[in-house]
Write a structure and sequence with these properties.
It is built from 3 helices and 2 strands; from the N terminus they run ααββα. The structure holds zinc ion (ZN).
Length: 89
């Protein structure tokens, strides 16, 4: 490899033929929001804040507690564990 080849590598492939759309084209329509990001879905969800976040996670507006409890119960049954005792303070 000589120095000219290296310079070509650093410069990259150069300008491509597919550049900007023509000026007389209308701007592309914005993509519709995914369902879980719509203001209606966020407002209807009791779990997330006004921006659709549960803490630091984007909320999918699904209640996962039922599935989680069912899964832990199945694990406890399989492993022979007792359910944790709830203490009231
Ligand atoms: Zn939510």
């Amino acid at each position: 490899m000589n120095d000219d080849d290296r310079d070509d590598y650093r410069r990259g492939p150069g300008p491509t033929t597919a550049t900007k759309p023509a000026a007389n084209q209308p701007p592309p329509k914005p993509e519709p929001l995914p369902q879980h990001l719509t203001p209606t879905a966020i407002a209807a969800c009791p779990d997330c804040d006004n921006h659709g976040y549960c803490g630091t996670t984007v909320c999918d507006h699904q209640d996962h507690q039922t599935a989680a409890k069912r899964g832990m119960a199945a694990i406890r049954a399989q492993m022979g564990w007792k359910a944790p005792e709830r203490t009231t303070t």
